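Below sits our specimen:

——
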Amino acid sequence: MKILYTSTVLSHICQFHLPHMKNLREAGWEVHVAAHDNLAVKNGLRLKNCDKFIEVPFDRSPKSPNNVKAYRQLKKLLAEEHYDVILCNTPMGGIVTRLAAKKARKRGTKVVYMAHGFHFFKGASKKNWLVYYPIEKHMARLCDMLITVNNEDYELAKRKFGGRTKVEHIHGVGVDENRYHPATEAEQRAMREAEGLSQDDFVILCTGELNENKNQSTLIRAAALLKDRLPNLKVLLAGNGPKEQELRRLISDERLEGVVRLLGYRTDLEKLTPAVDLVVSCSRREGMPLNIIEAMLCKKPVVASHNRGHDELVSEETGALIPAGDVRGFAEAVLSYAKDPEKRAIAGERGAVRAAPYSVGDVKKEFARILEGLTER
């Protein structure tokens, strides 16, 4: 059996799919990957568990002529290689792949689109519904299965697209519980020392690409409200992206140079997450956020913005949910956890229980079951 993974950028495959690719190879599958290679800016991220990589010039912009080139290249590839399954990901990677795979489907190839979070959802703008929903509705006919990673998208897809394609649900792509788990006090001390943090610091970790959606500016502004009330506050932003210089200016304007630190892109957050006090995410949109699951598996409380991905994971028992742009709301929620170690411990314990079904061990079984049903002759 042979499978092709496609994605707009290679970093998506490396961040989310490597454990499942490993599982497939161990089961005897040949695994190919087609994507635009952007790993040069992803600091140590590497492609593994792959028999063949094909550089394809996908572009995130629908207007880019590179996507026409990608379509032609994929059509040629699919004519030469006879894949049993194509698993396409990301908006443009998914659209271009499904268009290019029309003839391959007629030859028996099964095409699966994994939606890591629709751009249309409860609370999304009218523009998002007018633009993205009709496209996804049409594209649903061009795949044999649509996999969703959160409950809201699953219910919507079943209701709106169920007559066009088979709809399945898995608990995200899974977090490796062998990497992300609670650490001993001695291990936490060592982790903090490695990052130049003291044992008295109240440390917040926020992970994600530095972009408009991840909305790190709200956390920075919340830190500005807290710096005098929490003199030992340290905020760590892990990630890189187009908003980096803008965020650096904001940190400077708010005089937070000693409080907020940009860590850059990190592939070793299992060496830091277990040692922080709180994980915060202010994202406007999330499908199924791995950083939140990682935090919860490490028994860390979470303060997060209201959106479908966060709402599925976080509750009053495991943290707090705040409107995405509510700077004061984030500040007050952070302060409540900073002042109450027992509250942090209780939320962390409950979060670990809540996150268990989203571990990679459980999700591998879900994905294997779906794939087995898809390829049954």
